[in-house]
Design brief:
Blueprint (H helix, E strand, L loop, with lengths): L17 H11 L7 E2 L1 H8 L3 H13 L3 E3 L4 E3 L4 H9 L3 H16 L2 E8 L2 E8 L14 E3 L4 H7 L4 H8 L15 H14 L2 E4 L6 E9 L5 E10 L5 H24 L2
Antiparallel strand pairs: 1-3, 2-3, 4-5, 4-9, 5-6, 7-8, 8-9
Helix pairs in contact: 1-3, 2-3, 5-9, 7-8
Pfam families: HTH_IclR, IclR_C
Keywords: DNA-binding, Transcription, Transcription regulation
Organism: Ramlibacter montanisoli
Length: 263
């Protein structure tokens, strides 16, 4: 699936640098499904001409963000500088990590934090247990918001009309037999998450995967991130997760929110 360009609805003008926007599209064309690409593949995924894609790739190669063996192009580790610039500019993650580590010690499951970016969530912090899970995620990983607990929690911080716009911006894929794919049905779950202040998703992202999330809010009460606990249903049922882990999860979210606001 080709990445959705964030600039699709913008029109070039005095404040819009089209070549820069195209460069970002080229970077975003690389993914876990396409870690190494030919020039033609990059051009196809970005909608650029081969000549345009080539100029951008060679520029990125000169700057050290892309490498090539003469046929295939790939991102280099230097591209991480762009992501870590965001993380280092957001002191909240320094505040959140030790609190999340305490939660992991208490519940013995992996704990993550994510923010909303378009119709996706982006992982910004993850504290894992030593248990091996099929769903291997790290900082910068992206998942769809509609079928994840953190996604629905983050969507709950938006007006319903904005939630529906995001849900309708791309087809909702049935990732498992449990996945809700009707925008109205997903909206109902988002509204439920908004009312109760937390969200549990049972095997909608991956068979056997269970997760529960709570919002992190700023001083104005606006949701700025979400944290979740993830586990396996063969170890913990949804009822057990809610009964034993919801209270510490919400307390962790409250502590992070309080530390951010100085309350």
């Amino acid at each position: 699936m080709s990445p959705q360009a964030p600039t699709a609805d913008l029109k070039p003008g005095d404040a819009y640098v089209q070549s820069f926007a195209r460069g970002l599209e080229v970077i975003r064309s690389f993914s876990a499904r396409a870690p190494r690409q030919t020039l033609t593949e990059v051009a196809t995924r970005t909608g650029l001409t081969r000549a345009g894609a080539r100029r951008i790739l060679l520029t990125l190669q000169t700057l050290g963000y892309v490498e090539s063996d003469g046929k295939l192009f790939a991102l280099t580790p230097r591209i991480l500088d762009l992501g870590f610039a965001y993380l280092s500019s957001m002191p909240m993650w320094d505040v959140a990590e030790p609190v999340m580590e305490q939660l992991v010690e208490e519940v013995k499951e992996s704990v993550s934090a994510a923010v909303l970016e378009g119709a996706d969530i982006v992982y910004v912090l993850r504290v894992s247990t030593r248990k091996i899970m099929r769903n291997s995620l790290g900082i910068g990983s992206r998942l769809p918001a509609y079928c994840t607990s953190m996604g629905r929690t983050l969507l709950a911080g938006l007006p319903d009309e904005e939630v529906l716009r995001l849900l309708r911006s791309a087809p909702l894929e049935a990732r498992t037999r449990h996945t809700l794919t009707d925008p109205e049905a997903v909206l109902a779950r988002v509204q439920q998450a908004r009312r109760q202040g937390w969200c549990l998703v049972n095997q909608e992202l991956e068979e056997g995967l269970l997760s529960m999330a709570a919002p992190v809010v700023n001083r104005a009460g606006r949701t700025i991130a979400a944290i979740n606990i993830s586990g396996q249903v063969n170890r913990t049922t949804p009822r057990q997760m809610q009964e034993s882990m919801l209270a510490p999860l919400r307390e962790t979210a409250r502590q992070i929110s309080s530390r951010l606001t100085g309350a």
